Fold:
Amino acid sequence: MQELVSLFAKLSCPFCTKAKQMLIDNNMPFEEIVLGQDATTVSLRAVSGRARVPQVFIGAISAAARIWSSTCC
Structure:
């Protein structure tokens, strides 16, 4: 079973566009949550502790946290 993927993004963010394209290129279905339309930075901070984008979540875990835990110690 494939894990659920969520992308928090802003329309004007070039890094968000790159993250979205990476998910598309890797055939990873995802939900795009656009700040200012679908959610606010307050919501994003409540979920992740940060308000910067892009943020990709795989399952309930931040992709950044997965990368860190796989390379740490």
In short: The beta strands are 5-9, 31-34, 55-58, 61-62. The CA atoms of residues 48 and 62 lie 8 Å apart.
